[in-house]
Design a protein that fits this description.
With about 170 residues, the protein is of the alpha+beta class. The chain is built from 5 helices and 6 strands. Strands 1, 2, 3, 4, 5 and 6 form a 6-stranded antiparallel sheet that branches.
Length: about 170
């Protein structure tokens, strides 16, 4: 039998999951280290999402969009690979703290939130602006177009490609 949560519980869970996922990849900007490259303000509206590919060949915006696609599919392996371990742990703790979920792994968290987005037909259309980018670090400002939820996505380049770090946060309410 498939568990059918009450409408109020599902709505609350969806809002919480949206906040957790956005906080994972998106809020108040952290002070950035000085860089030789000037800050770029490049708005990018993305829809539809590009196909998920290894992020080693992608820039930070494309890597974020590939992560977003993987997190919604869900392709838990790809989505979890796009998160720093500290960020994945924070997201799991926040989701579990809601009381509506009990997940213990990144893969379980990605699957649970993807199911919620699918159940509520939440759009994944986003507007992405590069706030700052160097060779190995980037700060993006992301706004989900349907909901207006927003946040700062702080990324770093690892050997495998760009990943979203624990310095990412959702916008203040």
């Amino acid at each position: 039998m498939i568990f059918q949560p009450r409408r109020g519980v599902m709505a609350g869970a969806v809002l919480l999951a949206a906040a957790v996922v956005l906080s994972a990849c998106a809020a108040t900007p952290s002070p950035a280290a000085p860089s030789d490259a000037p800050a770029a303000e490049t708005p990018i509206t993305a829809s539809p999402l590009p196909r998920a590919t290894p992020s080693g060949d992608l820039g930070p915006v494309e890597s974020f969009l590939a992560w977003l696609e993987a997190s919604r599919a869900p392709d838990a392996e790809a989505a979890c690979a796009g998160l720093s371990p500290e960020l994945a742990a924070r997201m799991i703790a926040e989701l579990n703290g809601s009381g509506a979920f009990a997940v213990s792994t990144c893969a379980e968290m990605i699957t649970a939130t993807a199911d919620l987005y699918r159940a509520t037909a939440q759009s994944s259309e986003v507007d992405v602006t590069i706030q700052e980018q160097t060779e190995n670090d980037a700060t993006l400002f992301v706004t989900y177009l349907a909901s207006g939820d927003c946040g700062t996505v702080v990324m770093t380049r690892e050997v495998t490609g760009w990943i979203i770090t624990e310095r990412s946060e959702e916008c203040a309410v």
